């Protein structure tokens, strides 16, 4: 809880030196001492539960011991679940990265991770509890990966509903999680145009929060992703900070049209850090967790940890 003691000083410094951020009273980066490592991430749990497997030590060393975002979906007790997770990080003076992933019509284009809240009302209740669970604790939140990029796979009524729910999410995070940097997801360098994405970000309330995220669960290089994000900023009206998912992007994306789904030859990218061409480079997608029953993991469902996928990301094969 050391961040509470120094929060007044940091808040003054940020107000003088940092761009205006309506969502944050103080920088969660400055209020903590590095990124939180979740001891119960999928790779860490697998390694702990399989000590005799020849892959275990390597997976723990290269993946399980690193800061990785935790994804949160449908949960009747979302407020306490988030509070416990953010509290565990706060107890270590570390910065947790959370992903809000429960919007209705989730993964509308890919379908492998479909689902989400059963109604707009259910989502509003869920995201309100999610934000309240963070409260004043420092955190980073990536808001609803793929939601804005998938507009083209929805009819107009569902697009309008999604935009309204995303605006509500940004308002809740702004009001209830003042020491959180939240980022609306803006797809990736191969999905839509920067001008279209900028329009959608504005429509969805990006002005209420810190900024936007790119390349979540994808494989574009950091350079390609930064170029895409900077192009979006050229159309936003007011440029916003952005973060890049580098969890699996060291080798970039291959030429396969379906190269977003467990492609061969992918490799772990740089681990979580501030800077590096963005406000932060983060492991948002958990390395080793399948994108779906496709690519080099044709029988592994989306969201399932596969040790063979993990090892191939370590070796780049």
Automatic annotation (TrEMBL):
It holds the Pfam family Glyco_hydro_6. GO terms for biological process: cellulose catabolic process. Residues 1-25 form the signal peptide. InterPro entries: Beta_cellobiohydrolase (IPR016288), Beta_cellobiohydrolase_sf (IPR036434), Glyco_hydro_6_CS (IPR001524). Belongs to the glycosyl hydrolase family 6. PANTHER family: 1,4-BETA-D-GLUCAN CELLOBIOHYDROLASE C-RELATED, PTHR34876. This is Glucanase. It comes from Lentzea albida.
